[in-house]
C-alpha cells in the first residue's frame, strides 16, 4: 500500500479534514447557540432557532469527538502533550460542552421561564466558550508552547491558563468564535423566516467582514510579530519517531518559509478572505445557500492556512524548539496509521452519506406556528 | 492525597457516573426497537405510544450519557498524558474507530428517531431505531476492546527507540478474549438495566391502577427481554471468571480472597470476612470445588493463591530490574555485547521493574526493602473486591428471580393481580445499577496497581500536573456532575409520574406522525 512517509502525510491531511468537518457542521450549531439570546427575542423565536438544529447538533458534535479520537490514535504524542499542556483551557471547554446536550434536551421539557432561560444561557456558554477556546489553542500553537521531554519522553510543561490568554491567541479565539457565529447566522437564514431571518442576515453580514479583517490582521501579525519555526536538520520521514533528535531554528518571519518556497500557497488565505467577504455580500443580497457555502469555504481555508503555515510542525516548543512535535515525528506506528486509514476510507464516505440523508429528511424552514403545533414533541 | 490518588479518584468518579447512563441507553435502545417493531408489524398504535413514551425517558438519560462521555475521551490526554503517550498507538485506535463506526451513526440517527416521526415512513423510522440501537451496541464493542486491552494487553510491543508500546497485531487486539467476554457481559448487563427500568415503572403504574393497557404490554416485553438478558449476563459472567483464571490470576485471587493456593479443585467462598492483616478469611462459608470449576473448567487444576502470586511477582520484579537496567543502557547508547539478546529474554518483566519506581529512584539498584514494598503493592486490596463482587452477583441473581417470576405471571396474563410481585419489581429498580457499578469496580480496582496490565503501573501513567490542579478540576467536576444527576433524576421521576397519558401520548389517534400537542392533564 503506502509507505510510512505517505501515510504520515495523509494523516496530516485527514486531521485537517476532521477539523474542517467539525467547523462546517458543529460550527453552525455553536454559532446559532451563541446567537440564541441576541437573535431570538422571545421563547418561541428561540425555540425556532433551537429546533432548526435539534436533529443535527448531536451528530455534528461527533466531528469533534472523532477529531479527538483520531488525534489520540494517529498522533498520540500530540494528543498527550496538547491535552496535558492546555489543561485548564481544555477543562473549561469540557465543562462548557457538558451543558450542551442537557440544554438541548432538557430546556423545553418544562414550561417554567426561569428554567428555560437558565438552559438558554447553558446553551450559549456551552457553545461560545469552546468556539473561543479552540481558536485560543490554535493561536498558542502558532506561537509555540512551553514544553519539553525527559529521556523517557515524559512531558515537562511550564505554563498556565493565563499564559494562554495572550493578545495574539485572543485574536485567534475571537476569529474562531465569530466565524462560527457567521456560519450560524447563515444557517438561520436557510432554516427560518421573517424577522429571525432578517436579524441573522444583518448580524452575519457584519461578523463575516470582521472575520475577514481579523484573518488579515492575524496574518500580518504572524509575519512580523511572531516567532516561526523551521527544521534545520533532516528528518527521517520513513523512520521511527525521533521526536527529540532534530534541530529546529526559531526566527521572526519563520512561518513564511512555506509561502516563499511555494507562492501558490498564498491562494489559500486569499480565498479565505474572499470567502468571508462574499459571505457578507450574499447575506445582504439574500442568497442564503451561497452565503452558507462561502462561510464554509472561508472556515476551511482558515484551518488549511493554519496547517500549511506551520507545516510540518503541529506543536512547536518554546522551551526546547528541538523537541517540537511535527507531523513526521509525532505519529503513531506505521501499522496503526495504516489500519486507521482503511477505517477512515470505509467510514467517512458512509458518514457523509447518512449525514446528508438526515439533513435531507429534515429539510425545510421552521416557523413559530410549527413550534406551537408540535409543542410537546419539539425541543 | 497525592496526584496519583487524585487522578485515580477523578477517573473513577467520571467513569462511574458515566456508567449510570450507558447501560440504560444500551438496554432501552433495543427495547425501543422491539416495541416499534411490534407497532410496525401489528399496526397497533399503542406500541408506537410506548416507543415514544419510553423514548422520552431514553432521551433524558441519553443527554447525560453524551455529556459524561465527552469527559471520558478528553481525560486520557488531560489527566493521563504519559499513559496516552505510552499506549496511544494501540489504545487510541479503538476509540477513534468507535467514533467513526458507531458514535457518528448513533448520534445522527438519534436526531431522526426523535424528530423524524412524520418525515419518514413507518418502515424507515423503524430502520432508524434499529440502526441507532445497533450503533449503540457497536460503541460498547470498541470501548470494551480498548478496556480489554488495558486488562490484558495483547498484540503489541514496547519500541525502545520511541519509548512507546506499538501495535503488532490488530487482530489480536480485536479478538482479545478478555475484550470479547467483557463486551457480551457488559451489553447484556445494559439490556438487563433497560428491562428492569421498564418493568419497575410499569409495575408502579399497575400498582396505582393507571395506564393499564400500556403498562401491561410494557411489563410483558420487559420481562421476556429481561429474562433472556439476565441469563446471558450470568452465563457470560461465568465465562469472565474463566478468563480471569486464565489471564488475570491476581484479580481472581483477590475477588475470592484466595490467600494461598489450595489443592485442586478450589472451593468458592460464599461468605466471609477477609482479614488483610492476617492474610486469611474469617467466618468463611465455602462450597467445595466450585471455584476450580469456574476458573479452570477442570477438577485438577489449582487456582493460584495470593501468597504464591506474590512469590511469582517477586521473581518478576527482580527480572524487571535487570530489564530496566538493560533498557537504560540500550537507550543511552552504552550498549554492551549481548544486551539486546538479554533484554529480549526479560522484556516481559519490564513492567514489574517499573513498579519499583514508586519506591526507589534507582530501579536497577533498589534495596530489598523497596522490593518488598513493590511486592506487597502488586496485589490489590482484597476486601473491596471481595465485597463488590458479591454485591454484583447477589444483585444479578435477585434479578434472575425477578424476571423469572415476572415472565411467569405475564404469560398467565395477570401481573397486576400480584401486588407483591409488582412491589418486588419496583424496589428492584436500583439493582442493575448496583450490579453494573460493582462490576466495573471489580474490573478496574482489580487491575491495580496497573494502568495497563503488567506493562505500565498507574503511578507512571499520570500527567505532568500538580495535585492542586487535579484537585481543582475534581471538585469542579464533582459539583457539576452532582447537579446534573439531581436534575436528571428529577426529570425522570417527573415524566415517569406523568406517565404516557399525562404526557399526551395516548390521544395520539390521528396518526399524523408528530406527537400530539394537547396540553398535559396533570402539571
* Contiguous helical run count of chain A: 15
Helix % of chain A is over 70%
Low-confidence stretches of chain A: none
Q: Hey, which two chains have the biggest interface?
A: A-B, 77 and 80 residues
InterPro entries (chain A): Cyt-d_oxidase_su2
Family (chain A): Belongs to the cytochrome ubiquinol oxidase subunit 2 family.
Pfam families (chain A): Cyt_bd_oxida_II
Main location (chain A): membrane
Q: If you had to describe this structure to a student in words, what would you say it looks like?
A:
The complex is a heterodimer of chains A (379) and B (523). Chain A is mainly alpha-helical and 379 residues long. Chain A has one domain (4-373). In chain A, 70% of the residues lie in helices and 6% in strands. Chain A has a two-stranded antiparallel sheet with strand order 1-2. In chain A, helix 1 packs antiparallel against helix 7 (113-143) and helix 6 (87-106) runs antiparallel to helix 7. The longest helix of chain A is centred in the middle third of the chain and has 32 residues, at 194-225. Chain B is mainly α and 523 residues long. The longest helix of chain B is centred in the N-terminal third of the chain and has 40 residues, at 3-42. The interface between A and B is large, with 77 and 80 residues. Chain A: Keywords: Cell membrane, Electron transport, Heme, Iron, Membrane, Metal-binding, Transmembrane, Transmembrane helix, Transport. Chain A: It is found in: Cell membrane. Chain A: The chain crosses the membrane at residues 12-36, 81-100, 121-142, 162-188, 200-224, 264-283, 290-315, 335-362. Chain A: One of its GO terms (cellular component) is plasma membrane.
Amino acid at each position: 500500500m503506502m509507505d510510512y512517509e505517505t501515510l504520515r502525510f495523509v494523516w496530516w491531511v485527514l486531521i485537517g479534514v476532521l477539523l474542517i468537518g467539525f467547523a462546517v457542521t458543529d460550527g453552525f450549531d455553536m454559532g446559532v447557540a451563541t446567537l440564541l439570546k441576541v437573535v431570538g427575542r422571545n421563547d418561541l423565536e428561540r425555540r425556532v432557532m433551537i429546533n432548526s438544529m435539534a436533529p443535527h447538533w448531536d451528530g455534528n458534535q461527533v466531528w469533534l469527538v472523532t477529531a479527538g479520537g483520531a488525534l489520540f490514535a494517529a498522533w498520540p504524542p500530540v494528543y498527550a502533550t496538547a491535552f496535558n499542556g492546555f489543561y485548564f483551557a481544555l477543562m473549561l471547554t469540557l465543562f462548557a460542552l457538558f451543558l450542551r446536550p442537557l440544554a438541548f434536551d432538557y430546556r423545553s421539557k418544562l414550561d417554567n421561564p426561569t428554567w428555560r432561560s437558565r438552559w438558554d444561557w447553558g446553551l450559549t456558554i456551552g457553545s461560545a466558550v469552546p468556539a473561543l477556546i479552540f481558536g485560543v489553542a490554535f493561536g498558542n500553537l502558532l506561537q509555540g508552547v512551553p514544553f519539553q521531554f525527559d529521556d523517557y519522553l515524559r512531558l515537562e510543561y511550564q505554563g498556565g491558563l493565563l499564559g494562554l490568554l495572550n493578545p495574539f491567541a485572543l485574536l485567534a479565539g475571537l476569529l474562531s468564535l465569530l466565524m462560527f457565529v457567521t456560519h450560524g447566522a447563515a444557517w438561520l437564514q436557510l432554516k427560518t423566516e421573517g424577522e429571525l431571518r432578517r436579524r441573522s442576515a444583518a448580524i452575519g453580514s457584519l461578523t463575516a467582514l470582521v472575520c475577514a479583517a481579523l484573518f488579515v490582521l492575524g496574518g500580518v501579525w504572524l509575519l512580523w510579530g511572531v516567532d516561526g519555526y523551521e527544521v534545520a536538520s533532516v528528518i527521517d520521514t520513513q523512520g521511527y519517531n525521533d521526536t527529540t533528535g532534530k534541530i529546529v531554528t526559531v526566527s521572526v518571519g519563520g512561518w513564511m518559509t512555506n509561502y516563499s518556497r511555494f507562492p501558490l500557497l498564498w491562494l489559500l488565505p486569499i480565498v479565505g478572505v474572499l470567502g468571508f467577504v462574499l459571505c457578507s455580500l450574499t447575506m445582504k443580497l439574500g442568497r442564503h445557500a451561497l452565503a452558507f457555502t462561502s462561510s464554509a469555504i472561508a472556515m476551511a481555508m482558515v484551518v488549511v492556512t493554519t496547517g500549511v503555515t506551520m507545516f510540518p510542525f503541529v506543536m512547536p516548543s518554546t522551551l526546547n524548539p528541538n523537541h517540537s512535535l511535527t507531523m513526521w515525528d509525532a505519529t503513531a506506528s506505521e501499522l496503526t496509521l495504516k489500519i486507521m486509514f482503511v477505517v477512515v476510507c470505509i467510514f467517512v464516505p458512509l458518514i457523509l452519506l447518512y449525514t446528508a440523508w438526515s439533513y435531507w429528511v429534515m429539510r425545510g424552514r421552521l416557523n413559530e406556528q410549527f413550534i406551537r403545533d408540535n409543542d410537546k414533541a419539539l425541543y | 492525597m497525592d496526584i496519583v490518588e487524585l487522578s485515580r479518584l477523578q477517573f473513577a468518579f467520571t467513569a462511574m457516573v458515566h456508567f449510570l447512563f450507558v447501560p440504560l441507553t444500551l438496554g432501552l435502545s433495543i427495547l425501543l426497537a422491539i416495541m416499534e417493531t411490534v407497532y410496525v408489524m401489528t399496526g397497533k398504535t399503542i406500541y408506537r405510544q410506548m416507543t415514544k413514551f419510553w423514548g422520552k425517558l431514553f432521551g433524558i438519560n441519553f443527554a447525560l450519557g453524551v455529556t459524561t462521555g465527552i469527559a471520558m475521551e478528553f481525560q486520557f490526554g488531560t489527566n493521563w498524558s504519559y499513559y496516552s503517550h505510552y499506549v496511544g498507538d494501540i489504545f487510541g485506535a479503538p476509540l477513534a474507530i468507535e467514533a467513526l463506526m458507531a458514535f457518528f451513526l448513533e448520534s445522527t440517527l438519534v436526531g431522526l428517531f426523535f424528530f423524524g416521526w412524520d418525515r419518514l415512513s413507518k418502515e424507515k423510522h423503524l430502520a432508524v431505531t434499529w440502526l441507532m440501537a445497533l450503533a449503540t451496541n457497536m460503541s460498547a464493542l470498541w470501548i470494551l476492546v480498548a478496556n480489554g486491552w488495558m486488562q490484558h494487553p495483547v498484540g503489541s510491543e514496547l519500541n525502545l527507540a520511541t519509548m512507546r508500546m506499538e501495535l503488532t497485531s490488530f487482530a489480536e487486539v480485536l479478538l482479545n478474549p478478555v475484550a470479547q467476554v467483557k463486551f457480551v457481559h457488559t451489553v447484556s448487563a445494559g439490556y438487563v438495566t433497560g428491562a428492569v427500568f421498564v418493568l419497575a415503572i410499569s409495575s408502579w403504574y399497575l400498582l396505582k391502577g393507571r395506564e393499564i393497557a400500556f403498562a401491561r404490554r410494557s411489563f410483558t416485553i420487559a420481562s421476556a427481554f429481561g429474562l433472556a438478558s439476565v441469563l446471558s449476563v450470568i452465563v457470560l459472567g461465568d465465562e469472565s471468571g474463566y478468563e480471569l483464571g486464565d489471564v488475570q490470576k491476581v484479580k481472581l485471587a483477590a475477588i475470592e480472597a484466595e490467600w494461598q493456593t489450595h489443592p485442586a479443585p478450589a472451593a468458592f467462598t460464599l461468605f466471609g470476612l477477609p482479614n488483610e492483616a492476617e492474610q486469611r478469611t474469617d467466618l468463611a462459608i465455602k462450597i467445595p470445588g466450585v471455584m476450580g470449576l469456574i476458573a479452570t473448567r477442570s477438577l485438577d487444576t489449582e487456582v493460584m493463591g495470593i501468597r504464591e502470586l506474590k512469590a511469582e511477582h517477586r521473581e518478576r520484579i527482580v527480572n524487571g530490574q535487570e530489564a530496566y537496567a538493560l533498557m537504560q543502557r540500550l537507550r543511552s547508547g552504552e550498549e554492551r555485547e549481548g544486551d539486546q539478546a538479554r533484554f529480549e529474554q526479560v522484556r516481559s518483566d519490564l513492567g514489574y521493574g517499573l513498579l519499583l519506581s514508586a519506591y526507589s529512584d534507582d530501579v536497577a539498584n533498589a534495596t530489598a526493602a523497596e522490593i518488598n514494598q513493590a511486592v506487597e503493592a502488586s496485589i490489590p486490596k482484597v476486601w473491596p473486591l471481595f465485597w463488590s463482587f458479591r454485591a454484583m452477583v447477589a444483585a444479578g441473581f435477585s434479578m434472575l428471580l425477578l424476571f423469572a417470576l415476572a415472565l411467569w405471571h405475564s404469560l398467565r396474563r395477570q401481573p397486576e393481580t400480584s401486588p407483591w410481585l409488582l412491589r418486588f419489581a419496583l424496589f428492584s429498580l436500583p439493582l442493575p445499577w448496583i450490579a453494573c457499578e460493582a462490576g466495573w469496580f471489580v474490573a478496574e480496582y482489580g487491575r491495580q496497581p496497573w494502568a495497563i496490565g503488567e506493562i505500565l503501573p498507574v503511578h507512571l501513567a499520570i500527567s505532568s500536573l500538580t495535585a492542586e490542579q487535579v484537585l481543582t478540576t475534581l471538585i469542579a467536576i464533582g459539583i457539576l456532575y452532582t447537579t446534573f444527576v439531581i436534575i436528571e433524576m428529577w426529570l425522570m421521576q417527573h415524566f415517569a409520574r406523568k406517565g404516557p397519558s399525562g404526557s399526551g401520548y395516548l390521544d395520539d389517534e390521528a396518526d399524523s406522525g408528530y406527537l400530539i400537542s394537547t396540553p398535559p392533564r396533570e402539571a
